[in-house]
Amino acid sequence: MSQTSGIQADIPSTDSFIPPTKLQSDAADVLKTVYTGGVGLVPLDVAYALVGHTEAAVRKIFATKNRSYEKPNGMLSNAQMSDAIHILPDDKRRIIHSLIEKHNLPFSVVAPFDATHPFFDSVDAFVMQNSSKVGTLDMLLNAGQFHNELARQAWDNGRPIFGSSANISLTGSNYRLQDIEEPIRQIADISIDHGTSKYVNELGRSSSIIDFRDFSVIRVGVVFDKLEEIFREEFGITLKVAQ
Asked: Which positions ≥6 away from 107 have C-beta within 8 Å?
């Protein structure tokens, strides 16, 4: 039986004010569920997402979404995690911090990482295999207040959570809990409703994913035009978008 918490009629959007104690409590409830093998359905500014920690949960997410194992999960993360785990030169780290701290934009970074970091000690080999690719890890960064609280608590707990958007694969992201397909909702052991995702859009886009090895764009997502402008004007970098 799914558990739903956090539903409040006076919270219209994921970026509306939510008391810190509630954010902390909702995030703790999600982490307690996923650390014991469950699946969480969570509200992010870029879209609703399914998250898990164990092999059973990750298998369930992939199977229900009909998602190809060629497309690894992302990890809910923050700049502190990226600094500690991604293997990047300082100039590329400065870009990440600027996008978060100066521009307050959501994005995903793909980069080489330290797979031996203690943060991954609790992670099954199957989960790591399907949450990384050719020595790189996709970290979702700055995707809203609830995402950031989940990432903060996960880091403090020393146990990561992985996931992808809450939709049948290739059908486009969902931005409200009530719009999510029933099979997706049914596998969630806990669902958090914080209203409509901040970056709701008609194209069904979620986060922009950028490979920081060569600044190629794996996925054009929300606020991509702003990201592209900042890379070009602030750092002199032209993002490589496949034609």
From this structure: 99, 141, 142, 207, 208, 209, 210, 221, 223, 227
* Token digits of residue 195: 């209203």
- For the chain, the domain total comes to 1
Which tens digits make up the pLDDT trace of 116-170? 999 999 999 999 999 999 999 999 999 999 999 999 999 999 999 999 999 999 8
CA triplet 231, 232, 237: central angle to 5 degrees?
Answer: 75
Only one residue has tokens 């990384």, namely 132
| pTM of the entire predicted model | 0.94
Helices (H), 14-144: 20-35, 55-65, 79-85, 90-97, 125-129
The token pair at 237 is 């970098």
Supply the range of the domain harboring residue 98.
Answer: 3-241
Task: Name the helix (H) or strand (E) containing 4.
Answer: strand 3-5
**How far apart are the C-alpha atoms of 85 and 87, rounded to whole Å?**
6
CATH code (residue 187): 3.90.870.10
